[in-house]
Every structure is written in C-alpha cells, then in structure tokens.
Design a protein that fits this description.
By secondary structure, this protein is largely without helices or strands. The chain has a domain at 49-121. Helices cover 11% and strands 8% of the residues. The chain contains 3 helices and 3 strands; from the N terminus they run βαββαα. It has helices at 78-83, 124-127, 141-147; strands at residues 49-51, 91-94, 110-114. The chain has a 3-stranded antiparallel beta sheet with strand order 1-3-2, with no helix packed on it. The longest helix has 7 residues, at 141-147. It is globular, with a radius of gyration of 17 Å. The chain starts with 48 loop residues before the first strand and ends in an 11-residue tail after the last helix.
Length: 158
C-alpha cells in the first residue's frame, strides 16, 4: 500500500556557533532523481517547466513575485508568461535556495514555473509547502523516502 500522506519532522538545532542539518542523499539513489544517479521512479509531469529568467525579460514588479503569491494561486501577468513561450498559466517564485530548491536557484532569485492544469490537479508543493519546493516537486528526497514501499504488507512507518 502506498502512503497517502507525507510525514515531516521539523527539527531545529540550537547551540553555540552555526549548526546546519544535511538533508541531501537521504533517499536511495534508485528512488530519488539525484542528477548523477538517474531514475525514472519520480519525475515531474511532462507539462512542468521552470526558468530563472534575467530581470530584463520579465516585469519584476509583478505581484506574482511576492513570496508565497504562488500558494495563493496568484498567477503572473499573461505577457510575462508569453515572454517565455508559455500559456498564460504561470507563476512567479522567490527562491529560498539551498536544499529546499534542490540547487536549482539561489536564495532571493526570481523564478517562473508552470505545471498547468491547476483546476484538475493539486500538486505536492501546494499540499506540503513547507517541505516541497514548486521547482523540485516529486523529485524531493523526503518525498522519495516516504513513498518507499515496505517489504511486507503490514508495515507501519512510525
């Protein structure tokens, strides 16, 4: 049975100096789409696209580039989407950077993405916004670990 939830422990480390938790390479290489270890188990939908366009290509004053505007369903102006050759159904995103964005952009960079068919599907980044970046989606290693099927049918992930 495949899980229909995603468990997330939010752990904060405190103490003298700077402490950082390493969260990469936590999934089996064959489960995670780690770029150097390709797998077809989890991949973005065929209609997914993203770009970190130079500010000259898009209107950076568009409210779609406000943090979390994409979570509220606020789409970018149709002309910004058209400048990238996309339909008028695209979103702006302010990158968090680091592991959360899978190294696809640096913190503070502006990105645009489209999954399309938002009226038909709910995507992981909408369901688990604190865990999964819209740029990474199902390629998130936490998701791959959680989706790993158990060897026996009566196994519970505690």
């Amino acid at each position: 049975m495949a899980p229909n939830t995603l468990f997330n422990d939010v752990i904060s480390l405190t103490g003298p100096g700077s402490l950082e938790m390493e969260e990469d390479d936590i999934a089996w290489p064959m489960d995670a789409n780690i770029p150097s270890k390709r797998s077809d188990l989890f991949h973005q939908p065929s209609h997914f696209a993203y770009r970190t366009p130079p500010p000259a290509e898009v209107d950076t004053s568009d409210p779609c580039f406000n943090p979390n505007a994409y979570l509220d369903g606020y789409r970018c102006a149709p002309e910004s989407c058209a400048a990238l050759g996309w339909p008028a159904d695209c979103f702006g995103y302010v990158c968090a950077g680091g592991y959360y964005d899978g190294g696809l952009c640096e913190a503070g960079d502006l990105a645009m993405f489209t999954y399309r068919k938002h009226d038909k599907f709910q995507y992981l980044y909408e369901t688990f916004p604190m865990v999964i970046s819209p740029l990474v989606g199902v390629r998130n290693e936490h998701f791959a670990v959680w989706m790993r099927l158990a060897a026996f049918p009566r196994f519970r992930k505690l």
